[in-house]
């Protein structure tokens, strides 16, 4: 596995290590269970949700994480404090390593946050034919990531919409997908996708705003009839889609998408303010 830890320190099984020594990464061969958490103003956003999902992923594949939520929380706090980081993504990994046993890593990674113009002008997306073996478990498959990255680069797109063998689009390569038709929002059923943390909060927001959500996959043949679409994720929040391959969608002017985005941004601010300096 690529040694992707950055900044001065990372953590292995609760022990602080210098990033000059990243030998452990070369020993990781099995696809690890992982989570990526965005840190904003030294606060790990929606931490409780991320840890809950990580343990659920482990249960799905009958894997035991031998570090408690309280211990992981302490790791994250120490990582933020020792590296003096205000805004960046943290990655958590749990896996078995030969001759090392169970390993739990926490470290900062290179992070990309879309510039304001992406939200103002929308993003280009492509269709990518692929079906996850177990969509509910967040397991890292390096070959898939490399294939998608290559395709995105060649076509100048930001995200790939995954198309299954029946022609339906359950999710993006690194995101959950939402589509708007009239006054309704469509997104994949929970059994078909990884249950994103941002997705969870968007569904709650739609409920508060009395926006009807239909958990139903969109077929590629229905793309021309969409009024809007957006991707959601840890680093992107709510990001409107302008094109899917050659199909244009006026998402940036869609009232429902704007309302969801504005409410989600306020929810982030509320969460950060609720910590009131606890993580500094």
TrEMBL record:
Family per record: Belongs to the class-IV pyridoxal-phosphate-dependent aminotransferase family.
MF-aspect GO terms: transaminase activity
Domain of life, source organism: Bacteria
Cofactor: pyridoxal 5'-phosphate
Keywords, ordered alphabetically: Aminotransferase, Pyridoxal phosphate, Transferase
Stated name of the protein: Aminotransferase class IV
One Pfam match: Aminotran_4
């Amino acid at each position: 596995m690529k040694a992707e830890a950055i900044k001065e320190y990372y953590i292995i099984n609760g022990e602080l290590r210098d990033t000059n020594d990243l030998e452990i990464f070369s020993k990781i061969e099995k696809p690890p269970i992982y989570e990526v958490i965005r840190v904003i103003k030294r606060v790990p956003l929606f931490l409780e949700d991320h840890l809950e999902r990580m343990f659920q992923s482990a249960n799905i594949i009958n894997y035991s994480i031998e570090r408690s939520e309280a211990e992981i929380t302490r790791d994250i706090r120490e990582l933020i404090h020792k590296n003096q980081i205000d805004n960046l993504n943290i990655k958590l990994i749990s896996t078995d390593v030969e001759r090392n046993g169970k390993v739990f890593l926490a470290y900062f990674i290179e992070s990309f946050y879309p510039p304001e113009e992406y939200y103002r002008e929308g993003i280009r997306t492509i269709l990518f034919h692929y079906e996850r073996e177990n969509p509910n478990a967040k397991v890292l498959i390096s070959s898939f990531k490399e294939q998608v990255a290559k395709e995105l680069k060649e076509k100048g797109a930001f995200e790939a919409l995954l198309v299954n063998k029946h022609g339906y689009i359950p999710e993006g390569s690194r995101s959950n997908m939402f589509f708007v038709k009239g006054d309704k929002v469509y997104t994949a059923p929970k059994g078909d996708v990884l249950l994103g943390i941002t997705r969870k909060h968007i569904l709650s927001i739609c409920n508060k705003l009395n926006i009807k959500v239909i958990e139903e996959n969109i077929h590629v043949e229905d793309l021309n009839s969409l009024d809007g679409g957006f991707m959601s994720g840890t680093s992107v929040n709510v990001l409107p889609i302008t094109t899917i391959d050659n199909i244009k969608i006026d998402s940036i002017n869609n009232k429902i998408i704007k309302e969801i985005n504005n409410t989600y941004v306020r929810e982030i601010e509320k969460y950060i303010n609720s910590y009131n300096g606890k993580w500094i």
